[in-house]
Here is the input.
Amino acid sequence: MRYAHFLSWAGATVLALATGGFAQAQSSSASSAQTVPLDVSDQAARLTWWGDLDALELLYDQVNRPGLYSTQGNVLVNEWRQGTKRAFATPDATGEAFAVELDALTLTWAKQRPQSSMVHLLRAQALIARAWEIRGGGFANTVAPRAWADFQRLLEAAVQHLVSTSDVSLQHSSGYRELIIAGRGLGWSVDRVEQLVVAGRQRNPDDLSLWHHLLTSSLPKWGGNAVLVDRVIRRAADQHRDRSDEIYARLYQAAADEDFSHTVFRDTAADWPRIRKGLRDSISRWPDKAAFWNQLAYFACLKEDRETLSEALDAIQGKPALAQWGKNGRRVFESCQKLGGQG
Amino acid sequence: MAPVLSKAKTESMLSQAALDQTNGVGWRLQVTYPVAFKGGALMKQLRWTVSASPCAKRLIALGLVSAFGFAAAQAVSGAKESRARADEAALEIAGAVQAIEPQLDYFLTVPAEWPLSAELRADAQALLDQAAPRMKKVLREWALELHPGVLPAPQQSSSQRQTDLAWALNNRLLNERALNALDTAGSAHDAWREEVESKVGWCRTFWTAGKWGEALLQMDRLAQPKRAAALQHEAEVLARWGQPRPALPERPSYSLDTYAASLLARVRAGRADQRPPIAMVPVVAAVLLNDKAPPLAGSDAVDPPQRSVRCAALQWAMANARAEKVAAPAELAAAFRYALMFRLEDLERSKDTTSERAKALLQLGYPLHVARLELTGSVRVRYTRDEQGRITEAQVVRRKLSAPGLEGQRPVFFETALDAASIAKARALPPGPPGAGSVEFVWKLE
Here is the structure.
């Protein structure tokens, strides 16, 4: 019989943050960017899961600053947002009751801490999560007729909440991000969403996810088209001159991942040399390079750029990150290995 | 000068045998065994006293002289045997203490993994270091008290006696920890704990750190001098380790588990007008609202990680109980403290379900981890039958339980360990007349 051992879990990391685990970066330039190896997403998910608002807010304050990046070059606050979103996902076998509880919980939080932009963000996230639980993630023809009304109502409630608390909730780029996400479900135009991107970037110019969500709104599956996609991506790249090619590559990779898949070069204006350079920039800049090598190999394969493909496959060493290889990733990787002379 | 037949007094920690003469009118054979430790529990004495009238003294003495050779030989032989048994007992005690002491050491160490500031870590460790010698001494005293003694000759093997003693010590230590967790340094201590324990998120690491660890984690968030005062409260409670604690709150009749179940029923009903005033945090909602999840209260299915979830669920119930004022604040506070206490039910489960003994125990409905600690006694369950004679409500109303090592102790760590099994037995009773009734279940390991 033994007494259980204590695992520090998130607490350890929160403490590390509080005691100077990393310093705040004041500059938003990539050259001075700081990467944080801690798994902010997991911490945020766990703290939300347990309702530890004090620790969650402490973490939010630490990561919600320009110039802080994950090891893959994502703005760190986005990792935090991904984590809280995970905690709001309804588990199997609980059904609607789980979302109802979260609705009530986040409403209480918002009332208890009206001056916290974080809790308003959580409130909006919970409403949006519940809306999507009701709608489902499929195309419109897969949505039950009665679900549309609830979907719309909840998204409108999220928008209403953010707008009514805008003095606090829109202090940071994260509030704009949630508005963009809700607005997409409500059918807002790309131009309208772009205004939110501009406003959000004024709060945090490094928050690339704002562009990412604008890109999503411009995809064909959301009523957009390839021309719109290219316009958004070029505008985003132009706005980030020090990371221009890198952002160009990242957003085209997202466009392929979310919609165009293996036809991204056929169906869009994607510029392979620029994507290749952008991915090479990412590889040289960020510590966690595996995803970028896989993306480089995948795109090189699509473009049949054997030299680049061979170099990237050498770097992958037969251990692909299949999520980076599009649909049917295993087969795609194997055929690309043959093309690269390694099959 | 009175003859001294034998006097073997050794400073050895293991044994002492002495034969001495007292006053010339009688002989006293005294064999003492200050075995290994002070404390006296094992100081067994064997005395024979022979008295005589003054006129018969010489005759008796003569007779004694002739008989003395034989008696002396017998005495020396007996002393040797006794000394061997004393040595054996000393080794049994030392072995059992050695087996259990690491668990005490674990309690007396602030683990490096706990994310504490250097200052609080040092203060907490200093507090424990200060308490450690006395707590270890208490452990040895328990061992002396619980050892069956060296006379008369025990029937069990020495290794079995050592094992039994180690289990008894283990039980005592577990129970003492539970008593320690229930103890309070007073109203200021209670107020601080209530403030800490009502913080949402407090339960996150509960299953691993326990209340002591959590208390330290929370202390780290306090500013001085509040933090020093909080640590001092813990020191005061620790100073009572091993001592009677007459001021401990009684186990309240009010059950937070029962209230939590009623809250859950209201949530499940889905009616806005019945909703509890305080919503669940995600982890509680994910578990309580999941039909496939094991129950959280008083169940054998509660595994260590679920202690944290149980903590959060009880915290949710407590917040609602306060908001709805379902009981007096003091009663609620006691109910919460008891509900969060580390219990026998929270220990790791036995993996042995295939041995003949395990099968027999399971057949009786005896939880194996409870049987392993030799918990026996009786549990009375009050129930209500519906019109069809089926039991719809069942609640434990009295427990009389004991286990090795807990003689004279309030077995708080073990008190509820047979609740779930008793309620299950009650629910399995054949149908009977409608209305209220009660039944007592006797739990024995034969």
